[in-house]
Description:
CATH superfamily: Vaccinia Virus protein VP39
Number of domains: 1
Helix content: 40-55%
Order of helices and strands: HHHEHEHEEHEHHHEHHHE
Amino acid sequence: MNSIATDxxxxxxxNKFAQNIYGTTKGRIREIMVWREIESLLNSFRVGKRLTIxxxxxxxxxxxxxxxxxGHNVTICDISPQMxxxxxxxxxxxxxxxxxxxxxxxxxxxxxAGQFDLVICHAVLEWVSExxxxxxxxxxxLKPDGRLSLMFYNYHALLFKTVTLGNFGxxxxxxxxxKKKTLSPDYPRNPDDVYQWLAELNFHIVNxxxxxxxxxxxxDKSKQQTHFDGLLQLEQRFCHQEPYISLARYIHVIAxx
Length: 257
């Protein structure tokens, strides 16, 4: 089976993706929390160093644009030409210069081996049928002293939320999607599996962060907006602690070789 052919492409719902992901409180919290972790990661490099960065599966380029503004050499890779067109349009509006590659992550391994100080791969593993191949490709792309910023959709969080909503049939069916081409990930990932895959590739995990440890569990959804600042403070306070990391909607991992 050609795994690349079965990996999710968002061309058919690009505008919906922008609105439903980034135009919501869940998107705002995700963006703020992830950027805080990225800023900390950048500080782990030599001060003033201009980094070569790959945003693998970078979509519309929100994170890549922030990194380019800091003066880093940023490349965005995505299998969706529509996503890349949107990223390029937004970058040009801010006079930012980035490189764009319309291809799969797997296709980069040969031509770009060992070129990047930092490889970012956020919200990709849950959309691909063979995640271990993706991780192996990401390793190939890193310099020997490079860092990997990996974020994935957490199976445990989805199961917990599903049961608390009373969707017992969906939970008992193994959380298998009934409809294709939705914004609900095709392959929610068990964190233990991801950590094991990284270990098998000789990655060393140096940090774990829970992204949205409380937001998605609020019973009164209106408080996601009316109490956003207080909610964000709690997210920031508990995001590096268990059991909250393991129940977060996304888990962000920083790893080195």
